[in-house]
Please model this.
Amino acid sequence: MKVSGKYFIISLWIKEVVQSIQQLVGITNSSDETEAFDAFLTALLVALNMVLLPFMYHFVLHISGPTYATAVNIFLSTLIDKSFVAFSVFVRRTETAVSGKNFWEALLRHSLTLLPALMFVTKKDKYYQIQKVHTAHSMRQSQQELTHRRAGSNTKRGRRESLSESLNSKSHVVTSVMAVIGILVGLSLAIFSTLRFQNIQRECREQLGILADCASPRYYFKDGYFLGTPTCAIEDYVAFNCANGTLIDVDTLFDNSSVYADMVRLERIDVSGNRRLVSLPRSWSAVPNDIVVLAARNPALTGVPYALCRKTMNITIDVSDTPFSKAVNWSEQILKDVPRNKHAYMKAFQGECVGTELMMYKGTDDNPGDDEATRAKACADACLNEKIGSWLGFTALGFIVNTEGRCFCESQHSATCSREVYSSYFRYDFESRNLDISRSCLHSLRHAHTLDVSNNELICGDKHCEFETTIQNLRNLSFLDIGRNEIKTIVGSLSSMTRNIQVKALEISRFPAINLVGNHIAFFEIKGEAAGVLKSWFTAMRALKSVIIKGEFQADLQASEFRELEIGKLRSLNKLYILGKNSVHDFDFLHRSNIETLSLRGCNIDNAKAENLASALRQSKLKWLELYENNFGDSGALALAGSLKKSILQKLKISAHQGQFSAGFETNLSLPHQYCNSKGETVEIEIL
Model:
């Protein structure tokens, strides 16, 4: 139809109506794979087309006449069609073109782009036609104005009469009715789309919090744009893109394991660069597939659950450049993520571990079990309840039992012990936890200086600690909090694995480097450590409120270092081995301590120091004293001999060489009755 035709605008609008219907069908058909916001904007563009064309036509018609009104309509229609083409290309997903779709479904899916493009092609020649009409109309209007001037009539009145004729025509009545209908339908579509989108957006925010706004893709209308019930479609989420301030003032995020467990396609969570974010949700670990968590550069982030760093969770995480990466706090969290069943045990291998054992049952005579299973259970219960024997310094990590019920508790870890496989016993392990963290988390925590794993029921045996791997991997730690766990002994494994921590703490003069408060330590044995490390251990020990039954230190110290230890304040210490040649100048610490065994071998004890020791011996609790390879003479030896009867000493080891003792003192040594302690017990004296 020609542009100059009476019903051209009606024809144009009918085509636009058909186009709009087709576009709405396309929106509905592709809503299951179109972002909700994009579908919403597309619907608004259709509504705009339905409202703007009739409104602008009548507005321009009343101002400038039908020619300009038609031109504006063609321009707006073309502009909106172009917008559809451009916008549709950006919002479309490649899945819309996959094979397997029948022709009609593919046509409906692509009509969102196809029809506006075809309409635009058909309108290209309309601009040329309307330019010709405008030129002819202008020439005709000029001639009419010239005729009116010659006749002396009003030219404006002539134009008003011409416009009035256009407004009273049948075509104008039709366009007016179509305009009212189009505007009402367009406004209804806009209102419907806005309310529908806002409602589902609000529901998703209530379900997921602010994460709902940065989820991708959001297929809210996957069940249909107009008729289906909107849904958050969390099962289709692939990523949460919430980086660089997206979370605004949010400090915590939505935490619900059951919801995250339904996100079967989730691959990536990016919350990096948010200044207020304080913690990450533990329930992210419930996502059923491998995910990447980016949480770096968050200046307030202090809480990252242990569950997100567990090696077995297959989560790649980055928390670098955060407060958490410097000070790791997993207090009580390990117990939640790796709960311990204290009574659980499992068969490890046939045989036994070579090492210390404690017998619980001799066999069928005293084991209450009736078969292999019940006898093993009886043995497990006996070990857990520490039924008989001396458990000082002993932690049962497993047990062995034979078919007759004879069983022993073992303190060795089955994975690292020396095995004796030619045995009638079966080795069982109590449930153990290896607190290993993922490589990505370890990389983020490589500069961590503090680790808090308190309140987690952790255990530490002679040669195995449940947190050993983690401690060894975090090489910049200067403080370790293992308080309120189930650590009963401090022996080789714990001492060696924390040596680097003690050294780091020494560099920054931080004491203690380890918190042990809340553990019922029954035994400790620390040997061969530097003075600073010993000082840190002493400080940690003194903070304990529980009584340590037995403790042993062995060290090579200088005098100033020995004084700094303040040994007298460590009431739990009962064995002390001093190796330094000039470490001890006085022995006042014996008055205040509970030391029963003291070795001062090769410590340069001269006469003055021996006399001081003799004086302290009378008020001490010493039962065993070694003084080999020292250089005190007669006066020192006589002072010691004279103090024996006022002490509770039971054994004395001394050296007799290079005239160390006078003949008279040696003679006195041959008279046993002169060397009884204050309890009347004979003091065993060993002279080398």
In short: The first strand starts at residue 215 and ends at 216. The two ends are 128 Å apart (CA to CA). Confidence is low (pLDDT under 50) at residues 94-100, 658-665, 667-673. The first helix runs from residue 8 to 29.
